[in-house]
Write a structure and sequence with these properties.
With 400 residues, the chain is an alpha/beta fold. It has 14 helices and eight strands. Strands 2-1-3-4 form a four-stranded parallel β-sheet, sandwiched between helices. Strand 5, helix 10 and strand 6 form a beta-alpha-beta unit. Helix 6 crosses helix 11, helix 7 packs parallel to helix 9 and helix 8 packs antiparallel against helix 10. The longest helix has 23 residues.
């Protein structure tokens, strides 16, 4: 297929956390709000005069210093972030807002603060820690709203004079929704039998929306959507199976590339940094304050193992199965970053349910944070694709 006009530019933006567009927004006077988890409502970090930066550690090498502070038994995502912070890679942030998502991220951010890895030269810099609900009920919503007020809106207003009014939140939601609509429209092309966009390309485009100021990327997203409308796919589909990729943090772009180079087209994504459910629109009404509606939307759509009430637990497996059906997947790859406790249990149980109750072949993967050219994972994905092909040849159903 013909190369997408902006893909190389998008790839370059993802090579560092403090990328070109982040620097451009900072130079214009905008406040950069860092976060480490999808459970912090994104629109609240993108109020007029602010923009969010979801932390990543691209091109991670040694994690020796972070391992010294966190031990080798904590997930590599948390260690990679701390290592990059110690190196000074996040000193561009004006604040860091972290949720009580898991003990590993908690320890990571606590060490960032104790080691004074950020805020040099900025006497207004602050860290905030917020609780997030474990259940999708009214008590959980009340907690969510209070925590967002106390640990996002109030400090942004007091420290930097940011407008936190209902009107400002609604404006941020409008911009958020525009990005979501564009990402969803681009993702619709993945449903084609011979798709005109690869899962790798789609992952790159989606990732950019988490790591750059949204107002500076919207025009390029629009151009990419228009370009895709007339893009001709390769005459012969090079992929041998279609898979949904499910699990924890996936911000290493080489992960999806490796899977697709092994013959499996990633037709849908359900992982942190993915489009499902991270790029769902938030529909607001005029009868209730915007903050409560934003928090309810995040609580309702949340697919994180942090939620452990029965409707949420059951709903996570139903959600993946519905994606697999909608996007005509032949199988599911269920992954976790090594030593990620919440997703380890979720992966184990979810894989069994999706296989036994829904009939989908499932490959379970325990992977490093940066995968590079992992021969082991490549071999496992290739074997998974071959097993799907054999079932097709034998006339057996590969999905429910």
């Amino acid at each position: 297929m013909k190369d997408l006009k902006h893909l190389y530019y998008f790839e370059k933006l993802l090579e560092e956390a403090n990328n070109e567009l982040v620097r451009q927004a900072k130079d214009s006077g905008d406040i950069c709000v860092g976060t480490v988890c999808e459970n912090v409502p994104e629109p609240l970090l993108n109020l007029p005069g602010t923009f969010s930066s979801r932390l990543r550690a691209p091109r991670t090498g040694s994690m020796e210093m972070a391992t010294y502070y966190l031990t080798s038994f904590l997930c590599e995502y948390s260690r990679a972030l701390l290592e990059r912070a110690i190196e000074g890679g996040y000193n561009y942030l004006d604040c860091l807002i972290a949720p009580d998502g898991c003990t590993m991220i908690n320890r990571c951010v606590e060490n960032m603060e104790l080691l004074k890895t950020m805020g040099a030269g900025n006497d207004k810099f602050f860290h905030e820690y917020m609780e997030i609900p474990q259940k999708g009920d009214q008590n959980g919503l009340d907690l969510y709203v209070l925590q967002c007020k106390n640990h996002i809106l109030t400090p942004l207003n007091k420290k930097y004079g940011i407008d936190i009014s209902d009107a400002a939140i609604r404006k941020a939601v409008e911009e958020h929704n525009e990005v979501c609509r564009l990402i969803r429209a681009i993702g619709e092309f993945r449903k084609e039998d011979n798709p005109r966009i690869t899962g790798y390309e789609y992952h790159i485009i989606t990732m950019v929306t988490y790591c750059t100021p949204k107002k500076l990327i919207i025009d390029k997203l629009k151009e990419t959507l228009e370009e895709l409308k007339t893009r001709e796919p390769d005459e012969k589909n090079k992929f041998r199976a279609r898979v949904v990729f499910v699990g924890s943090e996936v911000d290493d772009v080489d992960v999806i590339k490796l899977v697709e180079d092994s013959g499996a087209y990633v037709c849908a994504d359900r992982f942190c940094y993915g489009s499902f459910p991270g790029r769902d629109e938030i529909i607001l009404n005029e009868n209730e304050d915007a903050l409560t509606q934003v928090c309810r939307a995040y609580q309702k759509r949340g697919q994180c193992p942090r939620y452990w009430d029965t409707p949420k637990v059951v709903g996570r497996r139903d959600y993946v199965a519905s994606l697999a059906k909608e996007y005509k997947a032949d199988g599911i790859i269920y992954e976790q970053v090594k030593f990620c406790d919440p997703w380890a249990y979720e992966r184990m149980v979810g894989s069994v349910v999706l296989r036994d109750d829904f009939g989908y072949p499932v490959l379970q993967v325990d992977r490093p944070y940066t995968i590079g050219a992992s021969g082991q994972m490549r071999t496992r994905v290739q074997a998974f694709v071959e097993s799907i092909e054999i079932k097709k040849i034998q006339g057996g159903a590969v999905n429910g």
